[in-house]
Design a protein that fits this description.
By secondary structure, the protein is an alpha+beta fold. It has ten helices and six strands.
Length: 264
């Protein structure tokens, strides 16, 4: 059983509850993330939930659908337009409901999967546990721009631990992805979970330390906040360099939003 699947479901449900009161026209409101609308965010989550779900049962169909996405993206030059095309222009309340129904069904399928099952992806293969944790991470991070847009204070839960773990596991990736040498030592990270529990890694490292709220650490590694807009206590050169550009998601190296750009 893969309990992270229900963490993904619950985080998705939190976003569903946030957008449920919205009328169709509200889904065209523009967020601070690359000028994506709420429609763009939900289309992105829905489409990539679908292709991740395909990796569980139909690898050939996964490759076919992802190939279609790449072809559409080359034509339009935009992943947003490509996703909209492949979803047939599904938007607003109809999109919300289709996304909601699908992620519930998908969560049940991942819950029943072998956590160690290897699944194909656009890069290296990954375990089923890593795959659904990545969907949790992307849902949580993209939801932030909607919380910010609507002016709603987010209530986090300890299910974000999977995101914190992903942030730790991608320490080396952050530097490799930027063509830089990976530092020899990983910083000591000590985080306070939403429940008050302490999550800690590499306590033996006293030279480079990151301390603070787990939610803020997750915001930094998912690049939904600049480190300057958090209260994280960062000490040491390696810790400082990492937090300036941390990136727990795949794809080309990206920079976080400028200080103050997405501060709420």
């Amino acid at each position: 059983m893969l309990i992270e699947a229900y963490d993904f479901r619950d985080e998705s449900d939190a976003l569903y509850d946030l957008v449920s009161p919205l009328a169709d026209a509200d889904y065209d409101r523009v967020t601070l993330f690359r000028d994506w609308t709420i429609n763009d965010v939900l289309q992105h989550l829905h489409f990539f939930n679908y292709v991740a779900d395909l990796t569980l049962s139909d690898e050939l169909e996964f490759h076919r659908v992802y190939g279609e996405l790449n072809a559409e993206r080359e034509k339009s030059g935009s992943v947003v337009q490509a996703t909209d095309e492949l979803l047939g222009g599904l938007k607003g309340v109809a999109l919300r409901d289709a996304w909601h129904s699908f992620f519930h069904e998908m969560a049940d399928r991942f819950y029943a999967a072998d956590p160690k099952q290897r699944l194909k992806w656009v890069g290296p293969s990954m375990s089923a546990r890593s795959s659904i944790s990545a969907r949790l991470m992307e849902t949580w991070s993209h939801a932030q721009e909607i919380y910010d847009l609507l002016g709603v204070e987010r209530i986090n839960h300890d299910r974000i631990k999977s995101i914190a773990v992903m942030g730790m596991n991608t320490f080396g990736w952050t530097f490799k992805n930027r063509g830089e040498d990976v530092p020899e030592t990983v910083p000591h990270v000590k985080l306070t979970a939403p429940s008050g529990e302490i999550w800690e890694w590499n306590s033996e490292n006293t030279a480079d330390v990151i301390e603070g709220e787990a939610a803020e650490f997750c915001q930094v590694v998912t690049q939904t906040r600049n480190i300057a807009d958090t209260k994280l206590n960062v000490r040491g050169d390696i810790a400082t360099r990492w937090m300036a550009v941390a990136q727990c998601f795949a794809g080309p190296a990206r920079n976080p939003p400028a200080a103050g750009a997405r501060h709420a």
